[in-house]
Amino acid sequence: MNSEANKENVLKVDEKMLDEWATNLSGPVAIHLKQKLVPIEGEGGVIFPPTYANIGYNIDVLSDGKKVATIDSVGSQANRMEPLFKEPPLNDLIPQIQIKFGNKQISILDVGHRLGDALIRSTNLSEEAKEAFEKWLNGDAGKLAKLAPTSIIFGAWDSRDTSAKLPRIIQSVIRAWDVDGLSRSATYFPPVDYAKFEVFSEEEKTKAEGDTKNPLAQRGFVNALSTSEPGGIIAHGPIYRDVTVNLITLRRLKTTEKEKDTLRKYILGLSLMVVIQPFDGFLRQGCLLTPDPAAEQDWVIVMRDGRRLSFKIDDTVALEYAKKAAKEFGVVGKIREVSFEKQKAVDDSNKVKGKKNK
Fold this sequence. Notes:
The chain has 12 helices and 20 strands. The protein is an alpha+beta fold. The protein has 2 domains: 5-28 and 89-169 and 247-350, no CATH class; 179-232, no CATH class. The strands form 5 sheets. Strands 1, 2, 6, 7, 12, 15, 16, 17, 18 and 19 form a 10-stranded mixed β-sheet that branches. α1 crosses α10 (260-275) and α10 runs antiparallel to α11 (315-329).
């Protein structure tokens, strides 16, 4: 548990307390979860962080020389958490929007820029989405919450149209502390000497071997060497998942005077439900993590004066609170299908072309 947290008096959260967190403008500033993770191989196991263009792994060196690696970024964590709303028990808590194109369909929960994505602007939902963003800019989050609440929870930016920018309610990131990077090398030998069968000449073969950019090497026709590529990391320190629910941002959500408290309770209920879902630690090939059973999850409510009070919330209490808030706000598992319209996409892309030409 966090050394700063009050361990003696663990709060047992109930509906009244949640209402206070959602609506009291002088209430606590944030909910925070610190979760210690371990590789599936155990402490000290090799894990593979994400690789980024031009830099490889994102590893920062602190002033004391220790290295900290990003294992999963804020954006990646949001993209993993949001689709949880497609499955029970979360699916009945929000509107489910399916975008049809041809004989396929995609959920808005899988769309990268959420309600601000080009795909949304290419459907008959475009005007409704634009209206919701414009209302947001005028201080009314109600329509956006009833249309696409996860755009509020995980943030969105309608950068191509109204320029409305929604800050995240939930922020989650995974970092590994005190790490060392490893490298790996590999060699590929084709099963057949294709030059002997005159598929290409010996000269072409010699030229291609060792050149990873050569088409023959890329297509697997010649020996290929790969050396000193990123080979994962070893964490000598802990691997932590830090999740924050920003209650100040949540309580700044506004709509009609009649619905503003209901809106805030609804967004808090959704936020709690997605945060307490079991952690799926398969982040990528070579990176499978689980919670450390020897380390208790550190749930704290952070007060305005900096006090960090430990709390526990029963899953049933959280679910009932979220269901009640969704019902009162008028959102209970509504399913909506919209279709991709090529002409809308053409018109939208022409706006961009027109701006560039201008």
